[in-house]
Amino acid sequence: MKKIGNQTFKLDNPITILETASIVGKKEAEGPMAKYFDVCLEDEFFGEKTWEKAESKMIKTSIETVLKKSKISLSSIDFLFAGDLLNQCISSSFGIRDFEIPFLGIFGACSTFVEGLLLGSLLLDGGAGNYGIVGTSSHFCSAEKQFRFPLELGNQRPPTSQWTVTGSAAAVLSKNGVGPYITHVTPGKIVDKGIKDANNMGSAMAPAAIATILAHLKDTGRNPTYYDAIITGDLGHIGKSIVLELSKAEGYQLNSVYDDCGVLMFDQNKQDTHAGGSGCACCGTVFSGYFFKQLKEKKIKRMLLVATGALMNSTSSQQGESIPGIAHAVSIEI
Amino acid sequence: MKNIETNKEYQEYVDKMSPNSPIFKNCFNAFWVGGLICVIGQLIFDYFVFRGFSEELTGTIVSISLIFLSAFLTSINVFNKIGKFAGAGSLIPITGFANSIISPAMEYKSEGYVMGVGAKMFTVAGPVLVYGICSSVVVGLLYLLFNAQAVMLV
Amino acid sequence: MENFLGSLDYWMFLKAFIIGGLLCVIAQILIDKTKLTPARILVIYVTTGTILGGLGLYKYLVDFAGCGATVPLTGFGNNLAKGVIEEVGKNGFLGAFIGGIKASAGGITAAIFFGYIASLVSKPKMKKQ
Questions:
Q1: Which of A161-170, B73-82, B105-114, B138-147 shows the lowest mean pLDDT across its residues?
Q2: Does residue B133 share a domain with residue B86?
Q3: CATH homologous superfamily for A2-174?
Q4: What is the interface pTM, i.e. ipTM, of the complex?
């Protein structure tokens, strides 16, 4: 690989995304993306006793599904990157503990999926084997329990709040293959514009998304129109408008190619999710379910996938800290 | 539009971009649901006073009845729907206090009956008891200070 | 039952409805305008009730609106203050530590006990929206 510009790496051997898998909960399966997902759960407990166990089972299932779809045996996998939102990433480590493959746990909040793709493709490009897996998960109920309030508490969600996606996504990366290829990766820098409201994550993360998108375009010398799609992870409706307006102020017109997975996941009018979807699984499942198929069918030829994360926890919120945002980008082309 | 440089400018911009809560609708729902819960309380109160209970005891009966109602609605997974609709209308009456004890008890059952249910029961309502009880002690001490008759008893 | 319905003071119901409703509306405005969490709102209400009760002002609202004033959490605070003042009158200094809980023992115990029972018989469910 080679570093170009300030913070972008160009891969010498573009890495193929061989196959993806997605699994979602009931509410996601009622949304506009429903028909693209591999598995839709009827029951958010997934036959388990706790939300945490259910989330672990989801990530396990999505990795098993992606292996089955790509017809690759577990033993030929060289490494696995996975992460989630629960304390110390327990969904990932508990979900994959029986797999017996080299595991690297990562945390990038909701940017985890792209962080995994980024690290995985760099590692394969560097010669670390042939196949790698990237996985992530989030669960509305386990996230509410950890970050907000008990489910049965009779509180109102403010209109700026986002709905944590219940689901899990996994992708197999391959050194050899016929695409879609990861060609460039741009790890993001932390951007903190001082937003403290944990019920307004889209606004807290939007500046990081803008910074990474612009850095990527400058480093590669590309115009936004080079891409058929520039897709952010989970900024939701408010974050999406902020990205469009502020990047325009910087001289970049994204309107025709830009969208956000948090906006695409739910029907804002019918599903009452307020500002849209969020969570690790939001970007992961929408990419794995929808965009990967579009790339395979050559309906989209070049896309920039930019997952965003809010790097805070409930303690930092209670201590009045602002929310540091991050965004990582991978350029995927056929 | 003008460029956004400082955090303060960004916060102002975000405030402008973020939709406000539908405050009129929320207040209307809070008003009639909250009012209705108080009327139910009044009905229970009048009934037990009519049956000859003392007013003080009846006050306790009203509290316990409404708390039971709240516990019942919470355990059949209905209270959170009322809360979403009514906001402060179901939060401010004693039903909301009860719900804030019952909902974490149910949620943290998965962590066991001692450190889960027992300890986490007060995650939301704990502060209410702490501040309520502490301020009552302060009231008691101040009353003692300003009331000579009571001081004589010490 | 006939007698009971005949004995009801419907004017009192209206007053309870309006005062109870208004106390909730104030909290709703606080929630929507200041982004205070429900726990903070409850703390503000119970403390305000205790202070007003301690100053002897809340009882006028109770006389006027009955359960419209006692059912909201300010009434719980008032109850704590009322209990503590009564107990200080009887037992002096020690009363400050006994009166509050004594007066509100029923409510607190009921919430804890029913909460425990609810956790035995029921489990949380995924929200639809």
A1: B138-147
A2: no
A3: Stage V sporulation protein AD (3.40.47.40)
A4: 0.93
Mapped onto helix, strand or coil, the DSSP state of residue A83 is strand
- How many Cα neighbours within 13 Å face the side chain of A100? 4
Residue of chain A nearest B77, judged by CA positions: A152
Beta strands A163-164 and A277-278 are parallel
Q: Which two tokens stand for residue B61?
A: 């009966």
Q: Can you say how many angstroms the Cα of residue B3 is from the centroid of all Cα atoms in its chain?
A: 44
Which residues of chain A neighbour C35 with C-beta distances below 8 Å?
Answer: 158, 197, 199
- Whether chain C has a CB inside 8 Å of the CB on A153: the answer is yes
Its pTM stands at 0.94
- Residue B142, in any domain of the structure: yes
Domain that holds residue B48: 24-123
Distance CA B44, CA B51 (A): 11
Q: Is the minimum CB–CB distance between A150 and chain C shorter than 8 Å? A: yes
Minimal C-alpha gap between B4 and chain C (Å) = 24
User: How far apart, in whole angstroms, are the C-alpha atoms of residue A276 and residue A286?
Assistant: 13
CATH top class, domain A181-333:
alpha beta
For chain C, which residues make up each domain, given as ranges? 2-121
A261-274: pLDDT as tens digits: 999 999 988 998 99
